[in-house]
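Structure first, sequence second, as always.
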């Protein structure tokens, strides 16, 4: 497999021209981030969280949940693929493309050794600047969720319960975090 060419400034179009080699390529402010295929425990964490959020959205009808690879392109130099993302309804229906809504209710990344810097620094900044309602980082080793919002520069680290209440929802989603981590890591 050919390695990506060395460039000083990447665009989403440059990224899209790369061969499909099993890696995940994202561009944040002109920098190319390359992630290898995720480990099984990473995928277990994504799958369990997807089911929890999907069940909640089936009741609340305020958005739709997707898993990577799903492109979120904010600009020609900002294209990412969150592990889990929730997009709002597009005219009362499931959006077919990110361009249908241009807004993210929730973006989630499950940490892995190769993505920690991108997830905690570059993506956190990007999601704040792009006004993503909430950004969660799932730290499997620490058994915590880190929550960020555009309105608060501080990161909230949660180990017991995470509550999420998107706009227009009647009730919050409440995730018992010890139970979540038991399902992901201990079964």
């Amino acid at each position: 497999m050919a390695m990506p060419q060395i460039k000083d400034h990447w665009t989403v179009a440059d990224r899209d021209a790369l061969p499909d080699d099993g890696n995940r390529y994202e561009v944040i402010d002109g920098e190319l981030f390359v992630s290898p295929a995720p480990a099984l425990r990473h995928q277990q964490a994504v799958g369990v969280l997807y089911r929890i959020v999907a069940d909640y959205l089936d009741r609340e009808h305020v958005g739709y949940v997707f898993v990577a690879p799903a492109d979120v392109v904010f600009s020609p130099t900002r294209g990412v693929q969150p592990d889990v993302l929730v997009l709002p309804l597009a005219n009362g229906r499931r959006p077919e493309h990110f361009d249908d809504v241009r807004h993210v209710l929730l973006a989630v990344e499950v940490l892995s050794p190769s993505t920690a810097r991108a997830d905690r620094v570059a993506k956190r900044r990007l999601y704040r600047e792009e006004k993503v309602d909430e950004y969660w980082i799932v730290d499997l080793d620490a058994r915590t969720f880190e929550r960020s919002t555009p309105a608060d520069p501080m990161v909230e680290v949660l180990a017991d319960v995470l509550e999420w209440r998107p706009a227009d929802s009647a009730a919050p989603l409440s995730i018992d975090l010890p139970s979540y981590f038991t399902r992901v890591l201990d079964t």
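Margin note: The chain has a mean pLDDT of 91.
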